[in-house]
Specification:
The complex is a heterodimer of chains A (about 100) and B (about 450). Chain A is α/β, with parallel strands linked by helices and about 100 residues long. Helices cover about 25% and strands about 20% of the residues of chain A. Chain A has 2 helices and 4 strands; from the N terminus they run E-E-H-E-H-E. Chain A has a 3-stranded parallel β-sheet, with helices on both faces. In chain A, helix 1 links the parallel strand 2 and strand 3. The mean pLDDT of chain B is about 95. Chain B has about 450 residues and is an alpha/beta fold. Chain B folds into 2 domains: about 90 residues, no CATH class; about 300 residues, no CATH class. Chain B has 18 helices and 14 strands. The chains are: A alpha/beta (about 100), B alpha/beta (about 450). At the A-B interface, strand 1, helix 1, helix 2 and strand 4 of A face helix 1, strand 1, helix 2, helix 3 and helix 4 of B.
Chain lengths: ~100, ~450
Amino acid sequence: MSQKITVHDPRGFPPKVIGKRLASRLPSLDGKTVFLVDCLFDNSDQFMEQLRQWFGKHLPAVKARIIKTTESWVDDPAMRDKISEDGDAAILGVGL
Amino acid sequence: MGLALSLERQGVPTVAVSTHVFARLARATALAEGMPTARNVFVPQPIVGRTPDQLRAYIEGVDPVLKIPFVQGVIEGLTKPLSDQDLADSSFERSTPRLLTPDTEENLHALFLENHWTDCLPIVLPTEERVDRMLDGTSQPRDKIVGRMRPTAFREAWEFDVEKVAVNAVMAGARPDYFPVILTMAASGMTARSSSTTSWATISLINGPIRNEIGMNDGIGALGPYNHANATIGRAHSLASQNVQGGSVPGESYMGTLGNWLNYTACFPEAEERSPWDPFHVDEGFKPTDSTVSIFFGGWYTLSGFGPRETWQDRFTRMLTATDFYSPPLIVMDPLVARAFVDLGYTKRSLIEWCAEHAKLPARDYWDDQWTQTLSKPLGVAGIEPYASRLRAEPGDLVNIFTPDDIKIVVTGGETQGGFKMFSGRYVGRGPGTENKGKPTFLIDEWR
């Protein structure tokens, strides 16, 4: 039992990780449009509505707008383009 | 997280909100996507079923992971200038060795277990000799790339070759003559180890001549641990899935809340010779002489019954409406049951159509479900049928919960009893936990 043997590694081949840069952060949220992205998980619409109301009460200078993806778990380039063109920042939730 | 990272790449400062149980998974995803410092804030689990006041309390409370006020994390995530760590190049190479450092059998078994490379049952260690013998089961070169696999749609896909599949087939205890079937399952790209919170599994059906060539069991105990090929082929797909995709580790790359026994193994052949109907693969356009594997994605629920007796229609209706509708039923019936339906005048197709016609629920019940809300409602809003009609229905209106194409019937079993089962098992179509939108029946002969 103490004899050493050689065995294969069962794992696949991971892709190379290509580093990507985060977007520059905003100096302030005042006057900025922040999109609250409802990713369509059950009840995330309620969460985003509560977050929108929180901004309205505590940071009224922030324009918080709710936007929905067209499907859950599916990328939505058109929605991303709208956020990029019409907004300054985004908060996504709730889910991965 | 994937959408958040895409927005960052478009120049939009973004914060992703996750529930706290996903913290490790979110971190791993960001690292693999090359943005390890992506901004992520957390609220407690669950979101589902919480009232607006409870959700507001999450927002006004403390982030259970970062241990700071939730809104502080949000605001700082969007406004705090990027640090040196953010600006550092986060590119890196990863590799897995072909062979592990030589060690004793005892230590290697411990290493495989500790690294989450097994299903926690004993494995056969994949020595070079054993892997070479497994490779004799195919004419394909050992370094041929078979495909890519990932635990769910938003995770990175890992690549794998014939040899890697052989390694996992050895670990599962499979024999070389099963190897073309195992390669076909791996080449499908369909993981048997989805990371979904819904604890999915795959159920694999084998049709055609290869069933008999390798001695699979479609008789007594076809779905149970009574045949070497049935058992080890399913286990090989499961082990290969967790390893070639880069892991199936609870809390990190596996989030199924209950787990699923079908993740150990779930593979069976159809009793083609004893079925009164055409085999499944022929229904799907293949020749009777083709050997195929069909991979159903589900395993979430199982309902069982006997029959058809006098009240079978009531029983079927109750069972169909007791399913979870986002995962349509794969009905597996003993040949005795299939023949009895023939005696009642049903073909396989007409029985499926009867099931789809009679599986109805009030729209209120249909929509009161986290996955129909998450997955089907957006399609209904977008006007896509049949979801749009179901969404337009009044709460008390009865809506059909399946279309005929959703429901599949397969015949297997030992004829000791007129038993049948309805398994959660989507064949095609949209749904949680799978990205396979095509027809998941694959020719085995291409991998011989």
